[in-house]
Write a structure and sequence with these properties.
transmembrane, globular, 2 domains, 0% strand, mainly alpha, membrane, MFS, Growth Hormone, Chain: A
Length: 389
């Protein structure tokens, strides 16, 4: 595996730490900013909205820029946004910095994904993308719990400063390791890449991504209050459980990466089924041991699907373009937006923190239906047709 792929994974670690550390910081941020927990949870959705919008716009608008230069520029914007966020004294400014940093993150994801799949043979795309997404899973093991722990002891702003510094380190690594690439070819290439979106199978693949991601994050976004208020876990145990979720995610992402190239649909069905079982257990959990075990399983199953989701999207598109990578990034973050919003809606409606697990179950059922349709279309296309006279 080229060194550049691991360096890009390191960069995703920095970006992913910021994206998900809000989960463990929600109670403290809500108090400091004078807002409710569901309102603080919208900072997660704000990041996701920026990712949804930013990925395709930056992919289209930056074709003429050298890839490494673009990666570096986006990391600089991301780091600067976190400095401003750490210095902000109001919810509105912080919300804006989350959107800006998300747009930069989205552009980085899109370019990094396209760079990754072009650095390896087609038969190793799943493994290479697992390394890239692995940066996100390691962020859940190390970055998110560390950010939560730092926020509990030194305030949530200290976690933002730490991410800003980590992003600078990532930028230096990108500068030293990622090879120079040619500039894009401009408008003709854009028109060519846009043609892949005429394929209904690509839209179906993107829908599966969004639904499965929403399933995971409707619950994950509110794990801290769910575990403390419902399952009876001490608040000091939240960083440990988040680390366990990330540990499960690491196991899942690399297991899924090994299977995704050869068994994409089987990997997706297995991951989805196990995740749904974990969510049902979490919905009924009033015991910390049961709840923590369910969180660990959810992390493993939810992230095991990611490499296969990416592989299926590229296969449906029939290419490895930056715009396809941008579309998968947007689809993942449609899920990241939809999940926390739906979960927050049920909490605000007085249904309790356990309701978010049932929201996830419903989203998982929709993902299962979409996946089944995709499989049927795939089987129809790959089954030899009899020719009659």
């Amino acid at each position: 595996m080229p060194l550049a792929v691991f360096v890009l994974g390191l960069s995703i670690f920095a970006l992913g730490t910021s994206e998900f550390m809000i989960t463990g910081l929600l109670p403290g941020m809500a108090i400091d900013l004078g807002v409710t927990i569901p309102d603080a949870g919208l900072l997660i959705s704000a990041f996701a909205i920026g990712m949804v919008v930013g990925a395709p716009l930056l992919a289209i608008g930056t074709f003429r820029l050298p890839r490494r230069t673009l990666l570096l520029g986006l990391l600089v914007v991301f780091s600067t946004a976190h400095v401003i966020g750490a210095l902000s004294d109001g919810y509105a400014v912080l919300f804006a910095t989350r959107v800006i940093s998300a747009v930069a993150c989205a552009g980085f994801w899109a370019v990094a994904a396209a760079t990754t799949v072009n650095l390896v043979p087609e038969a190793r795309r799943g493994q290479a993308l697992a390394v890239l997404v692995g940066g996100l899973t390691v962020a859940n093991v190390v970055g998110v719990p560390a950010g939560t722990l730092l926020g509990q002891h030194a305030g949530w702003r200290s976690a933002f400063w730490a991410v800003a510094a980590l992003t600078v380190v990532a930028a230096i690594a990108v500068l030293l390791s990622v090879p120079r690439t040619a500039k894009g070819t401009g408008a003709p290439r854009i028109a060519e890449e846009l043609r892949v979106f005429r394929r209904s199978r690509l839209w179906l693949a993107l829908s599966v991504i969004a639904l499965l991601q929403a399933m995971v994050f409707a619950t994950f976004s509110y794990l801290a209050p769910l575990l403390v208020s419902v399952a009876g876990l001490p608040e000091s145990g939240v960083p440990v459980v988040l680390a366990l979720f990330g540990g499960g995610a690491v196991i899942g992402i690399f297991a899924g990466g090994k299977l995704a190239d050869t068994y994409p649909f089987a990997t997706l069905y297995g991951s989805l089924g196990i995740a749904l079982a974990a969510l049902v257990a979490l919905a009924f959990a009033t015991n910390p041991v049961v709840a923590v075990t369910a969180v660990l399983v959810l992390g493993a199953a939810g992230f095991a699907a990611n490499p296969a989701l990416n592989v299926r999207a590229y296969a449906a598109a029939g290419g490895t373009s930056t715009l396809v990578g941008a579309s998968t990034t947007s689809a993942f973050n449609v899920g990241n937006t939809l999940g926390p919003w739906l979960g927050g809606t049920t909490i605000s409606a007085g249904m309790g923190f356990s309701s978010v697990a049932w929201v996830s179950v419903a989203l998982g059922a929709l993902a299962l239906a979409a996946l089944t349709l995709a499989l049927r279309l795939h089987q129809r296309d790959t089954t030899p047709q009899l020719v009659t006279a």
